[in-house]
Structure formats: C-alpha cells, structure tokens
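Field guide to reading this record: the first block holds the primary sequence, the second block holds the structure written as discrete tokens, and the final block holds curator observations. Each block starts with its own label. This record concerns Malic enzyme, catalogued under organism Russula ochroleuca.

BLOCK 1 — SEQUENCE
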Amino acid sequence: MTVILTPYWSDGTQRLKAEPQPPQPPPRGHFPAAYDDALHAARCLAQLRSKDKPIEKYIYLSQLKHANENLFYRLCLAHMAEFTPIIYTPTVGDACLQHSHIFRRPEGLYISIKDKGKVGEILNSWPHKSEARISVVTDGSRILGLGDLGVNGMPISIGKLSLYIAGAGIRPSSTIPICLDLGTNNQEYLDDPLYLGLRQSRVSDEVMTEFMKEFMFAMSRAFPKLLVQFEDFSTEHAFYYLDSFRHRYPVFNDDVQGTGAVVLSGFLNAAKLSSGASGQPLTSHRILFLGAGSAGVGVAMQLLSFFKLQGLTQEEARHHIYLVDSKGLIFDSRGPMADHKKYFSRKDYNGPPLTNLTEIIEYVKPTALFGLSTIKGAFNQDVIEAMAAHNARPIIFPLSNPVRLSECEFDDALRWTNGRVLFASGSPFPDALWEGKVHYAGQGNNMYIFPGLGLGSILCRASAVTDAMVEASSLGLADSLDEDERDSELLYPRLNRIREISAYIAMRVIRKAQEEVRDPNYAYNIEAYRRAIQGVDRNSALRSLGDAQLLTYVTSKMWNP
Ligand SMILES: NC(=O)C1=CN([C@@H]2O[C@H](COP(=O)(O)OP(=O)(O)OC[C@H]3O[C@@H](n4cnc5c(N)ncnc54)[C@H](OP(=O)(O)O)[C@@H]3O)[C@@H](O)[C@H]2O)C=CC1
Ligand SMILES: CC(=O)C(=O)O
Ligand SMILES: [Mg+2]
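BLOCK 2 — STRUCTURE
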C-alpha cells in the first residue's frame, strides 16, 4: 500500500488518505534516439525563458520539479540568481496570493485544526519518515508583507525548502513543507469558491496553543531527527511559540532569528565601509528601525549582540537602537505597548509623539536605517536625503518583501545620496549604473542564513538552536565575502556561491554548538543544556576535526542533483 497525499477541499475533512495506488498506465511514449540530458536542460531553460510573466515561470518550474527533480535542481544551482526570484521572493508572493487558483497537485502537508487529536496519525503517514530532517512550518498568518493568506501560505514553506535543497544540499526527501490551517481572517479567501482552506476565521489563541503543543510533540515523535523552522507566523505568535518551544525542541524562527542574522551580517560589512569613509568607530553607530514586528525586533536583538561584541554592555548597546512603529518613535511615556516592543522602548525621550520619519531622523541622527514595515516608499526622497546629510556613507536597508512593498527602490537611493548609499533590500534589485560605476544591491534576506544554519544544526544533531549558533551563522556569512566581492563593495556574497557559503556557515554553526556544550555558562536552562549535550555528543567525532576537515565533511554531506 502506498500513501498518497491529497489536499482537503472546502469541508476540511480528512485529506491524507492511505489508498492503494491504481496500476500505473503504460508509458504513452518514449524518448527519441537522439534525446540527450544536457540538451534537455537547455531546452527547459529556453522554455522557462520564453514565458513573459513571473507567475508563469513559477508554474513552469513547479511542474519541472515534479517531473524531473534532478534536472530542476541542476538548473537551479547553475542559475541561482535567475531562479531565486521565481521560486522565492518576489514571485513566491504572487504564488501564495494565487495558490488556490494555480494549485495542481499537493506538495507538503496541510494540517488543519480539524485534525486536532490525530496530528500524530497524519504525520506518521508521511513517506520517507526516517529521512525527515527539516520542516518549514507556516500558519499562513503573515506571509511576507502580504498579510493573512491562510493555507495559501504553503508556497512559502515549499520555496524555503527548495532553497535548503539547492543552497545547502539537503536531500529533497528529507524536507517537509507544512502549512497549518487554523482558519483565516482573509474575507476575500473565505468568499473564494476555489480557496483550499477551511472556511472559518482564525481560532482563538487558546485553541491555537493547545494545537501547537500537540503538533510539536507529534512532530518530535514522528520525526526524531527533525529541525523545525517557523515561518511567517504573525508577530505575537512568532515570539510566543519560539519562546515556548525553543528549549524543548530543535526549532528556530526564520523571521526573528534568520532575519536578525542576515541583517547583522550585511550591517557588519556596511559598517566597515562607512566607518572607513568617516573614520568613526563601530560603537558610534545608531540604528533606526521602521517596523517593530517580528522582523524588526528580531533584527534589533541581533544588532544588540553586534554592539556587545564591540565591547559595550547590554544597556549601552540598547541605547544605540531606536524603533518606530505605525504610531511613530517607540518610547516609554507614549503609553501601553505590545510586549515585544518594550525592551527597545526609549526611556530617554519624553516629548510629544514623533511620527514623521524625517523628523525622527533629525532627532536620532542614525547611521543606519532599516525598513521592516511593509510600507512601500516609506523611505522617500526627504528621508533618504536626511540620511545622506548626516552620513558620508548612509546605510539604508529597505528589507520588506516582496519587492513591491520595499521601502525604497535602489536607483532612487543611489540618486538621492549621490551614489553614496550602502544598500541592501529584502527582495532583489538589479545592478545599477551611477556615474559610470556599477553598484550592487545586496539582498538582505534570510535565505543567506537558514540553509547553512539548518544544515549545521542537522549535521551536529543539535537538540536546540541557541542564540550563539544563530550569531555564528551571521558572523560566518559576514566573513564569507571574497576579495572581488569586497573590492566591488558587496555586502553579501554572490548567490552563485550559495553552496560554498552555506557549507562555511554550517561549519561555524557546528563549532559554536560544540563550544556551547563545553561552556559552563551556557545560558539555557538545565533541560536545554542536557539535551544539547546529548545532541552534540552523538556526533562527538566531529569535535576531533580541524576547521578545514570539518568543512570538507560538511560539503561531503551535501546532496547533489
Ligand atoms: N528581508 C528579510 O529577510 C525579511 C523581511 N521581512 C519583511 O519584513 C516585513 C515585516 O514583517 P513582520 O515584522 O513580521 O511584520 P509585522 O506586520 O509584524 O510588522 C510590521 C511593523 O511595521 C509597522 N508599521 C506598519 N505600518 C507602518 C507605518 N505606516 N509606519 C511605521 N511603521 C509601520 C507595524 O507597526 P505596529 O506594530 O504599530 O502595527 C509593525 O511594527 C514584511 O514585509 C516581511 O516580508 C520579514 C522577514 C525577513
Ligand atoms: C524573507 C522572509 O522570511 C519574509 O519576508 O518573511
Ligand atoms: Mg518569512
């Protein structure tokens, strides 16, 4: 008996059925004698390039992945910079918006609130159970900057896992895309006859938490070697479930931790260039965030660690960070605020609310401005010129996704700063020419981090993903620029080196995991400490390897199409 996966339709009833496979029909054709694999790859690439619309390219590549996984990943690896904007942001945003309309066959697991009480049963029906190593789990409640998309969030889990496979050589059969269907508050979808999810609004926090506890426990039982990546949960839930589960299971939140790591890394490289230009010490940087959600606060927490690495105390480090939300600068006397904003709320400002971003820049005089607000165009000419007035090399990162929600465009940022900007964006921008010189927009996207962080955590069997491991991934990425990339003032390495980068990050993550276990000051509670020891010691052989050997080992474990 072979398990086949079928999605549920509108009634939300059982959608994972163990059914006998019908006998396969005989092939309806055969390859011509002159068929050649390499030529077929060229043919597929030509077919892909013949499509005008990004969403058509996405559909084509989804079909190709299903028909010939090896060929898909071979092409993907050979054309990383061309493929990532299709299988990932920005096009994956359109794929999510239209998922219920372009859906052809299931890929991954849809688990709904109606499955409460039998989640384990469903997980146990997953084929390749023993091979499972990494799952990207979303509840669809905040997909990129597009809001609550319900089960239409599934392509984000699929897209991230495709990057794990292409970028870090995780075996395809070791990946499980999961979308939890806990209802949606998106009325347009609830009214859409083709919508694939439950036709109900989101369940209460209480019900969700009960479900999440069952889900995570069932995952750990069904897949003992699985690392879970939480993706695109709405902000309150992102923090709450990360805190709830990170000491019990190997889990990390990509939007909080992955984004924090990737932005710290780009900032470190940008700060070297900007400090070089102005001679200012790294500890004099002041960082202003537009957006104080899971991503904004996640990055702020990681930046805190940068200042601490420079020798500042936690309190001094906190002083360098300013957060702005939809009501303006966040400060204590403004009134009640969500828990996740409190830590960075300013105590040293007591004036009237500051809501205008240019005025806030005049007050803070930041050296770096990060956008994680989902507000397109929020970094307008006034804002960018204000940054340029205070800084020889202003660091400006519009990080919201997809690209149409970017806080500013690359060529505008170049124009309004006279080519001085140090720029990275969440979604890709093409290279731009400014006064005869080519400038490169860095892609400050967690896709540079999670493949390597995941691979390292999986290989050392870490039973917890610690803050220090996340920081190691960030510093590893920052150290990965080659000479040519440095000379070209790139803030992130070129994407065609993603495998090399992921292997290096994985090596640094494994090393840090081993140090953590040795460190008597290991910051986690005793249970997490015990589990980490168990996890890492299972691979104690890795300890005896030098860095170069460990890197070779990591590379040797990568799956190749
Ligand atoms: N580049 C990358 O790798 C990543 C990028 N992102 C992107 O970051 C964005 C935010 O994600 P996330 O933090 O989870 O989302 P949230 O919706 O939780 O956060 C958005 C934040 O922006 C604030 N905001 C909204 N409107 C305005 C406004 N007009 N002026 C100022 N602030 C405003 C909100 O304020 P309030 O709190 O008052 O509502 C909130 O703090 C998304 O576009 C996402 O795609 C996320 C992860 C990774
Ligand atoms: C990149 C990413 O994780 C996000 O935009 O949510
Ligand atoms: Mg995300």
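BLOCK 3 — OBSERVATIONS
The chain has three domains: 2-24+40-249, 258-444, 447-482+492-556.
Residues 1-19, 521-529 have pLDDT under 50 and may be disordered.
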